Amino acid sequence: MPTYNRILLIVLDSLGIGEMTDAAEYGDTGSNTIGNIAKFVGGLHVPNMAKLGLGRIHPIAGVATDPVTGAYGKMAEQSAGKDTTNGHWEMVGVKLEHPLPTYPEGFPREIMDEFEREIGRKSLGNKPASGTEILKELGDEHMRTGYPIVYTSGDSVFQIAAHEEVIPVQELYRYCEIAREMLVGPHGVGRVIARPFIGADGQFTRTANRRDYSLLFGRTVLNELQEAGYDVIGIGKIEDIYGGSGITGGTHTEDNMAGVEKTLAYLKDLKNGLIFANLVDFDAKYGHRNDPQGFAKAIEQFDGRLPDIVSAMEETDLLILTADHGCDPTTSGTDHSREFVPLLIFHKKMDAAIDLGVRSTFADLGATIADNFGVPNPGIGTSFFPRIK
Q1: pTM for this structure?
Q2: CATH code for the part of the protein at 109-213
Q3: What is the pLDDT of residues 83-109, one digit of tens each?
Q4: Domain ranges (residues) in the chain
């Protein structure tokens, strides 16, 4: 029998906590997503995460270091890269040895020619761009021509944007499936992403119908849990990140607070297993938009919901908060940043502070989950489960 019947793993997408030792190799010297945000806004008000030990991981303006009841630390990424795909897969036991391909000059002509032949239309864009800025640039032309907008970023992504009234969402998903089948081998990007939007006359807004189509990289602790008969619930983009592998159920969400509500709903019904949520607003709405004030408000809003989550937990539940990379909105760039990620852990029998230190890989998280449920460790990572029992 597991020590904890249910584990709640919540990824605060892009909430890095300071540059890693190899940050310079990625052009991220000085990045510190949460620390720099706190400085920018004159201090963060996050009393609930502070009680779990957030302020002890790294000095953060406005965040107290006492009192603390919880386990805290930070994790370093061993996988090459700084994308959602790399971070999430390493968490569950897969280290990516080589960087996934990126396309700072856009995708090769042979890729685009094949894609356009397969979908029966020309395309627009084919360059790195901010998702909101490219809609300002090409949204009206897309409306006139019906051509989908293809773009990328500093991450390993092939993104396809289309107005929901011009290219219906299901058709856009079909285009993404075509691209996913094409983009393998040397051009095996981590994710193909559907980016539907609405609006008119240059005023466009992306909708919640985003879908991610990920490569599969091997067996994970999620597969082990599923095969052992445990529920593995993906909330937000979790199912997409793992291509459905090892996921037994779940739901997509339109924003952070919907993710919190879905987590609370599953806490009412799920008897045992893993509830795995990704709250993407920090990244998509604020990190990539270079909006530190919006980012700070989102952090504080989530912190305000933590008591609801803790109240819904039973004594046999374990809560884990972490992130998958950084996305420092105070820097000039709009891409992810190579940072440590926070690790905050709580259960209702905790009565002291536990310093978990600096973990050498995100995979320690998956090893710990495997340890709790008594399933095989995928092969990398060291469990810290004995420290938090």
Answers
A1: 0.90
A2: 3.30.70.1250
A3: 999 999 999 999 998 889 999 999 999
A4: 6-96+218-388, 109-213
